[in-house]
Amino acid sequence: MPTAGEPLKVQLLGPVRAWRHGREVVLGPPKQRAVFALLAGRANDVVSVDHIIDAVWGGDIPQTAANGVHTYVAGLRRILEPERSRRESGELLISTAGGYALQTDPEAVDATLFARRHAQARRARAEGRLQEALDSAESALSLWHGEAHSGVPGPFAAMERTRLQDLRLTAVEEWSADMLAADRPVEAVTVLLGAVAEEPLREKLRWLLMSALYRCGRQAHALEVYAETRRLLRHELGIDPSAELRMLHQQILTGGPVTSSGAARTGTALAAGGRTSAPEPATTRMVLTETPRPAQLPPVARGFVGRTGELEQLARLLTENDRWGASTPIVVIDGPAGVGKSAFALELAHRLSEHFPDGQLYVDLRGTSMEGRSLSASEALLQVLRSLGVDDDRIPADAASRATLYRSLLHGKRVLVMLDDVLSADQLRPLIPGGSSCVLSTGRQRLGGLAVRDGAHLLRLDPLGTQDALALLRCLSGDRLRRQEAVARRLVGLSGGRPLTLRMMAETLAANPDVPLAALVEHFAEEHGRLDRLASRGDASTSLHALFETSYQALPAEAARTFRLLGLFSDELITVSAAAELTGTTEPEAAGTLRLLARRHLLVEAGRGAYRFHELMRLYAAECAEREPLTHRSAAVARLLQATASVA
């Protein structure tokens, strides 16, 4: 129970509760508690109103959701700071930058405190301080008072329940292994029986339970657990127990010493430091098992420049283990085609490789591939499991079971997982491992749901600034642009700052040393066919036109029609009203479509509800406009002209 001197204490590991100066406060109706739990789980971070709406309502968002958020925040302020007048700004729940933040010591939130104590236990264990590891783990587990986020609605609460439960069971596994190492199997058995009942398919828990029972002299009970495990795995997943469980079963059958090795196939991190027989057990210890160490990152392209601030920010984010505790940091990099997302992610991944000594996995999910359909999560998991040394006959048929096995394999390891060209959150989520690994992904769509439900950090990559673009162009074009500042700047302007376009230009300059620079610049400057000239023959992946086409083809029908009609629009700024007139839709419908096009990076937000095209995308949109029937184009322009005339 919190003491009277503590300003705010929050319980998320059980029913959501809060205490102010030692006295419990009633947090109000379920959705108001859901808003509080979200803000408490991200203490001191600003959470936008849109993220709160997604977290609380999910896909069933009422028109009154934004007003509902403001109402719930006002209710929480009255509860948490009853002494504050309506005109005074709050000290606990503040509004800023289009969102809200709960200002409190992060350790006042039990979920954060649990993660930190768990991390302390891991450090103590790694340094050989067994009793300290046990004390820290027991202190962490004592914070739990039931199912996390109990009684709170919404997709964020549901995801947190699953995530935190997995962390708790991980802590139970590690504590149990330490208890065996301390020769205290009887105490471990009671806890493990409850954990196995909660998560019956978790093989590591069953390995530990069988070991603990055997070391207590309960050989028959240990064999009974194995028989139950085999029946369950065959019935639920259609597979046999892992090699580690089978080995343990054989050792118990013969009454010999218990050892464990090669635990990579189930993610079991236990191996015998000594040998244990039932009557006189010796000590076991936690070690990492020998598994294939993947090194799958493609090479970094020559001439990477710029992005220094973004690289430093993400490097800190992905290597701050204490901040994340046992959860997995996720970074999702989005941006328009040709802006250099993959090159940026690979540069970052190679810089961080030494921080992830257990390897680097790379999967191209082909979300916008020109070579066919994208890779499903199940297909990606099959590819990854094979690269981790799992035989085909041990790989389950369904995606959920493959994801479970994948997370088990990477449990306790530090692996960097790079997922390139992601199409959707559902494609990425099954590939998120647990614990100390990290996920670095790229894609052309803004995946806001991953930030809300999974705590992902989103980074939008914009075109290069002028100086960085000039540096890249000069680096790649050799001596052609020496003392040609005006020409270089003209080319940068024509490129729109996209690294892919700059690379095309540099390659053309280098490949045509006898053609005057002025002629080459005019070759790039001519609008008609410019996109087709920005390509390398025989390599569709370097064609800006082809990349734009894959983004366009992925649009829903109405958004694609809007994009085509916007290609008729010559003004620099596209307003909601102009888009509504062009498309013959209502302004709310047009506003929603414009936002979708901006999320897909086919338009750029220009502020105050207006949008614009990047120059090269404007050329592509004008081409797409020709695909719209002439009668439809004429009608759209007539509607816009009539609306403009009536306003004038």
* Category by helix and strand content: alpha/beta
**Proportion of residues in helical segments:** 40-55%
In whole angstroms, the N-to-C terminal distance is 68 Å
Give the strand tally: 15
Shape: globular
Describe the largest sheet: 5 strands, parallel
Radius of gyration: 29 Å
SS field, number of helical segments: 28
Low-confidence stretches: 1-5, 260-290, 322-326
Q: Major sheet: order of its strands? A: 10-11-12-9-13
Average pLDDT rating: 80
In what range is the share of β-strand residues?
5-15%
Q: What does this 3D model show about the protein?
A:
- With 648 residues, the protein is an alpha/beta fold.
- The protein is 51% helix and 9% strand.
- It has 28 helices and 15 strands.
- The strands form five sheets. It has a five-stranded parallel beta sheet with strand order 10-11-12-9-13, sandwiched between helices.
- Strand 1 and strand 2 form a beta hairpin.
Summarize this structure briefly.
The chain has 28 helices and 15 strands.
